[in-house]
Amino acid sequence: MKILIVDDFSTMRRIIKNLLRDLGYNNTAEADDGSTALPMLQNGNYDFLVTDWNMPGMPGIDLLRAVRADPRLKNMPVLMVTAEAKREQIVEAAQAGVSGYIVKPFTAETLKEKINKIFERIQEQG
Amino acid sequence: MENQEDSKEALFKQQQLDRARELVKLMESGEEEAAGRLIEEMGRMHESLLFQELGKLTRDLHEALNSFRMDSRLSELTQMDIPDAKERLNYVVAMTDQAAHRTITAVEEALPVSEALAERARTLAGDWVRFRQREMSVDEFRAVSQSLADFLGDTERDAEVLRKHLSEVLMAQDFQDLTGQVIRRVMTLVQDMEDNLVGLVRISGQRLSKPESQDPTKPGGPAVKGTSDHGDVVSNQDDVDDLLSSLGF
Questions:
Q1: ipTM value of the model?
Q2: Contacts of B189 (CB under 8 A, 6+ apart)
Q3: pTM reported for the whole predicted model
Q4: CA B161 to chain CA mean position, Å
Q5: Distance of CA B3 to CAs B13, B213, B215, Å?
Q6: Disruptive mutation site among B167, B173, B174 for chain A (greatest number of A CBs within 10 Å)
Q7: Spatial contact of B16 and B42, defined as CB atoms under 8 Å apart
Q8: Which of A23, B45, B116, B149 is a good FRET partner for B234, with 20 to 30 A between their CA atoms?
Q9: Shortest CA gap B174–chain A (Å)
């Protein structure tokens, strides 16, 4: 399981990386915005994307749309971890095809629960 | 508007010139009384021009103030964004405070646990050496064996406690992202304020630096020291008289 963590704050990337390692996912890489993340995703055999929304350069919502528009990436599960908490925004992310949505600040338990939920859904579908 | 002003001024000049010629004529022909009336009239005209200028300035000021009131961005900044920014910075203070306390609390709870584990391990290590050197009675060994079993169980439990505290320290660091986003937003606001203030200074600066004497004959009222009234200005009536006499008056 190879996971890409996208957030403009390196502290948050490290927190998520450590939480994922706690959950048994050791193979992670990091990017600081959508425009650096997208080529990594296109060339890197990633299985899972965790992204922030509000980032300078390409925001997470655009990255999500780009992933869904790419025929090779469109089925990749995308978990959004963001401080954006407006209803419209969550609806917007859902409409863009997000697999899970976590509002910061969050707990380790929340992250674990959402990730498990995403994988359960994938297994049901597969 | 400008053309209207210019033609008005030209008309005024022409009128003044006509009157000056008439004045010379009257004085030459010795009609002192008529000359005096004409001088008075010319003074009044000058006064009325002063009032016109004052009126124009007042109107400009009024318009500038109005356009200011209508600049919704500026009023939005003062009415909404500044109090908003205060609240946001309060959030930063609260978040950093909370993160520091979460971290300190976790450390305070973790330290005694790790110290107790180290202490018990040290005691058991001593016992273990004596056992290996066969210096231990059977009864004593039974007791040590029991406390070794307890220690292993407790270590497993306490390692989990320590892991939880360390996770807590890790999670407390999420303040950096959240406060960072807020601070960036406030920085954008400060930038916005700066741009608006620069605009404000530019508007008022234009008024100040507007050269009054582009046309040196344009009436500007009395010369005032310490203002933009400088350059070729006479300082008293003697200077005026000297100047006039040098011109053949």
A1: 0.74
A2: B77, B81, B82, B84, B85
A3: 0.63
A4: 49
A5: 15, 18, 15
A6: B174
A7: yes
A8: B45
A9: 6
